């Protein structure tokens, strides 16, 4: 039977031993998934039509014995809350969200107590005694009310258990443990009622006490047979965890004192090619899995099997690898079958609903009457992948970003989006009328999103499954809320939603017999594949690690026979080795990163395989890293095409600004992107005022304050009058420049005060100058000047054009001033040598102020010119004029010689920019 799959062997048993009575034969398997594979195995072994036996999962089978309907974890939580309220004093009753924090753990413990058929009052009173012993040293009079409540909680546990058990039993519903306990209680009656039936249990490993009792009872009454699937290597090694449970059953079950143990196989030692591959991060594993599948397809095609993948399984040790894997699969995969649970925490539909809750609850807590929405919350919704392609709100997003809306009233948002889609209206409908209307709105929203998604696209089909999972949770919440009206508050709704969403899971169901199989670890039970790719082979992921989500301590579990992390590890070990048992090609992928959230050392299973390596196994271990090319990074080089030259000519005609020239010096590629390709920065909401915005506000304020004095000499009274206008004018400029942004609080309020202080300090310096006898006449403010520059070394005339902040005449000298919000020192405008002026970015301010002097030279009509900077962070230094050679006597007047030398340098720069043979080459800084 070597290399025959386990289900093929079961099919053979059914045909050889049960063919005459198949209609009365019930096959019980560990999960539902294996049913269709067993039917296929039967089909392959018969040539005539036969009646299929009933094939059922162990959970459904036990449910049938008990005659009780199973309820989902969300419904159970609400039912338990009803019971809790009915037996807890009103003064001590907790809100649902506080209750849920401990109830989920307690329900897990109730479940384990029942599955292992323990006496609940004994276990739960044991826990109370442990807590009493912990507090033993505290005198009665020193016990606080909080401590008393804590001890009372442990005293109440048996009451909680018994009341919930009775409550559920009366309704004919139950959680898994309750159903298992009741099935055992009903076992004799069930066994007598199915005398004509024959049961075949197949492919089990770990069994709880209830399952053991049920199976042994049916075997003892000659109504059942059980077939195990264990390899002799694991069974005969008393230390090997893969055989831990089956060894116990073989030794302890009465049946095996006189009957043979079936089956012990010898498949693991057969020839296997095992490749262990380490790579950084989740995405690295997904990419490698994709390339392995591509190789498998190519190999099978070369063998003439047309790239079939039905004997290939990808087993995800960590569910969040699913989406990266789907994007990494080659297009040649074709058919795909995903069978696994996927946590709602990573579900894109759940993330959207969480963002929706955040936006609306924040709006209600901020100002319920005006319903004020925070822009980030709004944009998070509008740019979500389930909304953005369908809501038609790109114009609205642009408006919010462009106008700096930080907080938007609901009324304003509706105004801004005058023709809203149905999706938009459902997203932004006010949440004011209680929890059920809110949940109904979310339900309609999810339906609308589902209708937007196509069935033709594989990705959208998967997204539909995500949306439908959350849709079911919301509808369950509507159902429970309608029965439990006492918890109807919007404030608690999100907390409850968060509690129940943890219990929800997306279930993917596909066509199991066709194409590549993607599954979780538990879904791989009983199934055999030729090629197996296992991901996330890291400690804490596979096996899952020692999570102790229980009120029952480890030593108590050991004493009472409840499973501990040791047994849970053994379950993982069995699943892992069973995956390898009949496989020929095995790929084990793990994350090599030792830092970060997904970090962890490689799984002990990999080390175990390396240590126990069988003679017939070839095992290789490789690390795949992203390798940088050996050659250094090659700077970007853009040659000047004809269209580039046309664009340069266009810029030369419209005007090169000093900032364009300095951007070229900084990095020619930056100049290429900004000026040639005209790529501008993406518009975003500026929540906190940026330095350039602050600079604009100061510039504009000074322009407005000084505008009345253009062409006039300024007096002391003029400046004093300006002081009175500062507050109103700065506020006005803030609103003009910062638009709808919030300026009345936080860092923006500080920026507002800084702007006022800067303007005030500037006026103080100006007033001091006038008092000291300076005659100041304003010539121009924020005015654009230009001058065409012709030179034989340039291919065409170039217009130098720029916006000058202020030009004044001071004591007969023309002064050209550029305002800088940041700090500028005297050294920044002092030039020691003309050599390499246009190659050093530190000379950018000199290039700028001399450009202004060149542009204004004719307008000065022979009057002496000086050009420089006023730095608002260095106002004490006053006007910082350009001067040449600091070691000589300072002379700030820009004469013909200076301008001539400057233009010579500009020719060098412009001839390089405009030379078709010199490409734009990136500067590596």
TrEMBL record:
PD-(D/E)XK endonuclease-like domain mapped to chain residues: 656-922
InterPro entries in the record: P-loop_NTPase, PDDEXK-like_dom_sf, PDDEXK_AddAB-type
Coiled coil: none
Descriptive protein name: PD-(D/E)XK nuclease family protein
């Amino acid at each position: 039977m070597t290399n025959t799959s386990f289900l093929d062997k079961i099919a053979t048993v059914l045909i050889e031993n049960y063919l005459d009575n198949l209609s009365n034969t019930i096959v019980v398997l560990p999960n539902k998934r294996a049913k269709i594979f067993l039917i296929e195995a039967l089909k392959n072994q018969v040539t005539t039509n036969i009646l299929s036996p009933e094939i059922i999962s162990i959970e459904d089978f036990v449910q049938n014995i008990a005659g009780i309907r199973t309820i989902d974890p969300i419904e159970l939580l609400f039912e338990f809350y009803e019971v809790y309220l009915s037996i807890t004093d009103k003064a001590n009753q907790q809100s649902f969200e506080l209750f849920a924090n401990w109830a989920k753990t307690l329900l897990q413990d109730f479940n384990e107590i029942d599955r292992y058929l323990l006496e609940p009052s004994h276990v739960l009173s044991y826990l109370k005694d442990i807590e009493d012993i912990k507090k033993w040293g505290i005198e009665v009079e020193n016990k606080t009310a909080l401590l008393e409540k804590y001890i009372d909680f442990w005293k109440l546990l048996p009451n909680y258990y018994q009341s919930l058990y009775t409550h559920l039993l009366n309704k004919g519903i139950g959680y898994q443990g309750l159903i298992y306990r009741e099935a055992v209680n009903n076992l004799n009656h069930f066994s007598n009622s199915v005398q004509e039936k024959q049961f075949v249990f197949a492919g089990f490993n770990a069994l709880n006490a209830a399952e053991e009792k049920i199976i042994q009872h049916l075997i003892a009454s000659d109504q059942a047979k059980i077939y195990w699937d264990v390899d002799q290597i694991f069974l005969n090694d008393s230390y090997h965890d893969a055989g831990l449970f089956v060894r116990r059953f073989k030794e302890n079950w009465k049946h095996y004192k006189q009957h043979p143990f079936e089956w012990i196989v010898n498949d693991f030692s057969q020839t296997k090619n095992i490749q262990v591959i380490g790579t950084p991060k989740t995405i690295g594993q997904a990419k490698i899995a994709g390339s392995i599948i591509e190789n498998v397809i190519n190999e099978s095609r070369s063998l003439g099997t047309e790239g079939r993948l039905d004997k290939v399984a990808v087993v995800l040790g960590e569910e969040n690898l699913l989406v990266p894997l789907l994007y990494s699969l080659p297009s040649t995969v074709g058919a795909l079958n995903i069978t696994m649970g996927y946590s709602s925490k990573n579900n894109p539909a759940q993330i959207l609903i969480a963002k929706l809750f955040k936006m609306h609850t924040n709006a209600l807590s901020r100002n319920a009457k005006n319903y004020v929405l925070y822009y980030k919350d709004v944009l998070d919704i509008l740019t979500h992948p389930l909304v953005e392609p369908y809501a038609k709100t790109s114009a609205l997003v642009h408006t919010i970003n462009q106008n700096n809306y930080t907080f938007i009233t609901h009324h304003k948002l509706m105004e801004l989006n005058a023709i809203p889609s149905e999706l938009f209206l459902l997203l932004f409908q006010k949440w004011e009328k209680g929890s059920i209307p809110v949940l109904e709105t979310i339900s309609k929203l999810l339906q609308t999103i589902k209708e937007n998604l196509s069935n033709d696209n594989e990705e959208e089909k998967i997204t539909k499954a995500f949306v439908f999972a959350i849709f079911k949770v919301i509808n369950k919440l509507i159902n429970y809320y309608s029965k439990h009206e006492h918890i109807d508050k919007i404030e608690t709704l999100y907390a409850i939603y968060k509690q129940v969403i943890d219990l929800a899971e997306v279930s993917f169901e596909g066509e199991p017999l066709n194409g590549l199989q993607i599954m979780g670890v538990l879904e791989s039970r009983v199934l055999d594949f030729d090629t197996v790719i296992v991901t996330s082979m890291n400690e804490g992921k596979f096996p899952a690690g020692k999570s102790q989500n229980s009120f029952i301590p480890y030593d108590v579990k050991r004493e009472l026979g409840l499973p501990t992390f040791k047994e849970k590890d053994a379950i993982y070990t069995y699943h892992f080795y069973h995956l390898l048992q009949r496989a020929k090609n095995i790929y084990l992928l793990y994350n090599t990163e030792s830092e970060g959230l997904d970090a962890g050392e490689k799984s002990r299973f990999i080390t175990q395989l390396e240590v126990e390596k069988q003679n017939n196994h070839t095992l290789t271990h490789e690390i795949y890293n992203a390798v940088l090319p050996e050659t250094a990074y090659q700077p970007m080089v853009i040659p000047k095409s004809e269209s580039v030259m046309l664009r340069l000519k266009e810029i030369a005609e419209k005007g090169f600004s000093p900032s364009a020239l300095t951007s070229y010096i900084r990095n020619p590629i930056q100049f290429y992107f900004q000026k040639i390709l005209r790529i501008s920065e993406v518009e975003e909401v500026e929540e906190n005022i940026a330095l350039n915005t602050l600079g604009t506000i100061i510039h504009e304020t000074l322009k407005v304050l000084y505008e009345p004095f253009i062409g006039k000499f300024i007096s002391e009274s003029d400046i004093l009058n300006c002081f009175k206008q500062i507050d109103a004018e700065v506020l006005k400029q803030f609103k003009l420049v910062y638009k709808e942004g919030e300026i009345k609080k936080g860092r923006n309020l500080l920026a507002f005060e800084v702007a006022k202080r800067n303007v005030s300090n500037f006026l103080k310096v100006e007033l001091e100058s006038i008092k000291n006898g300076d005659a100041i006449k304003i010539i121009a403010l924020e005015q654009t000047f230009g001058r065409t520059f012709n030179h034989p070394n340039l291919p065409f005339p170039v217009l130098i054009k720029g916006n000058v902040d202020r030009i004044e005449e001071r004591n007969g000298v023309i002064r050209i001033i550029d305002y800088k919000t940041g700090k500028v020192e005297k050294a920044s405008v002092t030039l020691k040598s003309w050599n390499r002026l246009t190659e050093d970015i530190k000379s950018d301010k000199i290039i700028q102020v001399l450009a202004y002097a060149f542009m204004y030279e004719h307008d000065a009509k022979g009057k002496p010119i000086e050009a420089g900077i006023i730095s608002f962070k260095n106002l004490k230094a006053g006007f910082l004029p350009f001067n040449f050679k600091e070691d000589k006597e300072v002379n700030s007047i820009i004469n013909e010689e200076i301008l001539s030398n400057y233009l010579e340098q500009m020719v060098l720069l412009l001839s390089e920019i405009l030379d078709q043979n010199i490409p734009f080459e990136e500067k590596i800084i």
